[in-house]
Structure formats: C-alpha cells, structure tokens
Amino acid sequence: MELDRRTVLRLAGAVPMMAAVPAAIPGGGGPWERLRARLTGELFRPGDPGYDEKRLGFFSLYDHRMPDGVAVCANEDDVRHCVDFAARQRIPLAARSGGHSYAGYSIVDRGLVVDLSRLNAVRILPGGRAEIGAGAQLGPVYEALAAAGRALPAGSCPQVGIAGLALGGGIGVLARKYGLTCDNVESVRFVGADGKACLVSEETAPDLLWALRGGGGGNFGIVTSFTFRTAAARTLANFNLVFPPAALAALVAAWQEWQPAMPDELWSGMGLGAATANCGGCFVGSAAQVNPLLDDLVRRVGVQPLEREVTEQGHLATMRTFSQETAFPAAVAERGRYVATSRMLTHPVPDPDGLATLLASDPHLYSIVDAYGGAIARVPSSESCFPHRSALGSIQIIRGLEGGEAYARHVIGGVRDELGREYGHAGYINYIDPEMPEWAKAYYGDSLPRLRRVARKYDPDGLFAFEQGLAR
Predict the structure, then answer these.
(1) Residue 46: is the preceding peptide bond cis (ω within 30°)?
(2) What region does 389 belong to: left with phi over 0, alpha with psi -120 to 50, or beta?
(3) In the prediction, which pLDDT does 324 show?
(4) Which CATH number is 130's domain given?
(5) Is residue 370 situated within a structural domain?
(6) What is the C-alpha separation between 114 and 17, in angstroms, rounded?
(7) Which domain holds residue 64?
(8) What string of DSSP letters covers 244-305?
C-alpha cells in the first residue's frame, strides 16, 4: 500500500487562513512599505525578486492566485505585525505552514500570505516534551526527535507542515498506539485576531486548546509553535502486502474484521484502485511478533500476496521508508497535480464487491484507507474536538487531473456521494474538499456548535474567515 500511497499522495495538510473582507490597497509605498520596515523577516510583493517562487504552494491548481504580499516571518513578532496589518487594512489573510491545503486556502488571491516556514526550530524539553515551530516540516522534526531518542505520532510525508497536520487531527502510522498528533499537543503559542501573542494551555485557555486539538488549520488565529508530549523511540516493524487487483473485495472484507481485533501496536491501511489491492502498516515491536498477525490477514483474504515485505527498523528509518525518501529529509521536486476528498468509514463495509466496483470504476482513481481505533478511540470529547473517534477508519479518494480539473472533481465527487449514502456525510478536515456537501457538519460533527462559539469568542470580527472556515 505505502508505495502507491506515497507516489500519489506525497503530502497532505496545511494551515489555511484568509479574511472575509476584501479591500484595495494602493500599490507601491504606503502601508506595505511600513509593514516591510517592521518585519525582521522578508516581504515579497509582485515584481520583487523571489515573489513568483514564494507565492506558490504545493498544488499547481492554484498557481493563478496572486497575493499582494508574502511575508516570510522570522519570529512571532513578525506574525503579530502581519495580523495587525491585515486587520487594519481589511485585507484577506492566509497563514501557510507546509502549504498543502487541498483547497488552496493557504494561498490567498489578493491580500497577505503569512509564511511560517522560518519558524521551524525543534527543541527537546525536559520530561520528554518537544517544542516545535509551526513552520517545521515532518522530515526535520523526525530527524531532531530521533537524535534525542524520541518519537511523535504524525504523518509519513516529510514535507507536510506540522501545524496543519496537528490542527486538523493528524493520522499516522503510530496513531493506534499513541493517538493522533493533536492528542499529543500540550500547549501552543498563538497570535489572535487582536494581534497579541499568548500561551494557550489547559490553565490559560482550555476552550481554545480544545478547539485547536482537531478544529482545523485556519480557524481562530495563527499558531506559532507547539509543545508536544513525545514517546520514547522504539524498534518498529513496517510491512507491505501486495495482493492481485482481483482480490480487492476479499482484502476489504478481511481487513475490516482483522484490523479491529489487532493490538494497539498494529496500525495498517489499504491502497485500493483498479490495479491496486495493497495493505501496509507499522507494528510497534519486532518482525517476529507481527508476522503471525499478517499470516492471519492472509488466511482471511484467502489469496496469497504477490509480494510480502516485513522490515524491522528504528523509528527514523521507518519514517524514511514510509516517505520513500532515500535522502530524507530531501527536497521533493514534484508538485501536487491531483484532487481529493474523503469519507469516514463509520461501520464495516456491507458490500465489499460493490465497493470494489466503485473504487475501480476509473483507471485514474486511487483510494487510501487508514485505520482508526486503539488510542484514537479512547480520547474523550472533553479533551479534543476531533469528532470521528468511533470510526473504523477514513477513506481518501484521489484522482489525477486527466481530463481536466472539473472532470476529476466530478469523478471523486461521485464516489464521495455514493459512499455518503452508506456511511453518512462525515469527512476528514485535513483532506478538505471545496465541494464537500454540508462541509461544516461533515468535518466537525457534534463538535460544530461549540467550535462556532469558540470562533466567535476569539475572532469576533471574522478576520480569519475563509470559504470553509468556522468564522464565516
């Protein structure tokens, strides 16, 4: 599964933010030059050297967007100045961490992009905690943690930003053992709509901390750093089973009975498509421990895999394997040229053959199923707003742009809506879909009313409002 998964889905998550009230700002000098003078970092405006590079995000679909400015912030004060500037000038505002918003919300068309990429320090604290800048990418985060013998449950793609991942939940290969990324957030540094910086913790602002643990990037304000609880790095066994494509339905039927019966130490996912029926994952322990569990899955499928690989490695080496990077954290030259959506699998698949037909209906369609359960399911709603704790898993539906963007969105939308008829309308905010029906309820579920109250409290004027934001 993971080879196909990483080929198609290199990166995911972002910190999308923009304001709701557009206004024209005079070109040249004036307010923009005053902002430039206040920043320790750099401000890139149209015509400036480097602007055309700095304005781009991961997805080429949004290359037409032209911010009035991109502020590459050097410190928290720079972020404060940017928020204050956008509020005073009444212009759109977007904060960008990794820049991988599926809907492009981290690139505002006209207005100011607050680029957090320089806020990327990773500092190991006493007691097994880590302070991580909101602009850090997962590759360097894993490198720094590994040097201290620590691990954080997070994603497997090295250039995803830690901020977008954590704020929306954070699915990863250690999630069933240690929880979602957001479950390990202890506190954050935060710049609010008033332009002031503060510490958000259980003691200072428990309602806001609750909302930031899964409430999605782009809402409430701009996080500048996180303090995470981490775990001791362990030996891991990562595995990949490649079945014949004709075994897709049998794999789904077997997996949905097998995975919930597995110990928390075992996380797995499936890569499914017209030519793909893979199952890959990670076990917190040894190859000798996981192999009998994989034998059980193969027995349930009833078909021998074409390939079976089990590798015992340290935590960092495992993350490198899942990212498919030989020089991790290496630069990934490719940019995203696909669209995606999601549904939550709220119960077992009643008709695996029907699902197989649906997911194999287009040769350019690819779907990824990630397992939930274990530690994910045991976090009470009072600690985190992430609403999908009881799900069997999530399914992400991805398609390349063959035939054009409109046609690709039509294809994934059809699969999304068909799944919705069986499983309900829930989806995962980090796989944000600009065409998701009833998006607010889909992404936030029963947490939505309280989240809206928090948004009104901390952003009463909707400075951080965007098309699928809580402050709109």
Answers:
(1) no
(2) alpha
(3) 65
(4) 3.30.465.10
(5) yes
(6) 9
(7) 32-115
(8) -GGGHHHHHHHHHHHGGGS-TTEEEEEEEETTEEEEEEEEES-HHHHHHHHHHHHHHHTS--
Answer whether residue 457 is part of any domain: no
Give which of 267, 264, 214, 260 is closest to 387, Cα–Cα: 214
Q: What is the domain count for the chain?
A: 3
Q: Residue 114: which of 47, 195, 230, 227 has the closest Cα?
A: 195
pLDDT number for residue 11 = 27
- Determine the Cα–Cα distance for residues 148 and 124; give it in Å rounded to an integer: 7
Among 102, 14, 108, 15, CA closest to 433:
102
Domain-located, residue 223: yes
pTM score over 0.70: yes
What single-letter amino acid sits at 89? Answer: Q
Predicted confidence (pLDDT) at residue 357 exceeds the cutoff of 50: yes
Amino acid identity of 349?
V
In angstroms, rounded to a whole number, what is the distance separating the alpha carbons of residues 368 and 393?
A: 10
Phi-psi region of 195 (alpha: psi -120 to 50; beta: other; left: phi over 0): left
Give the number of C-alpha atoms closer than 13 A to the C-alpha of residue 153, restricted to the C-beta side.
26
C-beta atoms surrounding 467 within 10 Å: 14
Tens-place pLDDT, residues 222-259: 999 999 999 999 999 999 999 999 999 999 999 999 99
Q: Are residues 379 and 241 in the same domain?
A: yes
Question: Are 277 and 392 within one domain?
Answer: yes
What's the chain's length in residues? 472
Q: Is residue 212 part of a domain?
A: yes
Among candidate residues 203, 232, 261, the one where a domain is terminated: 232
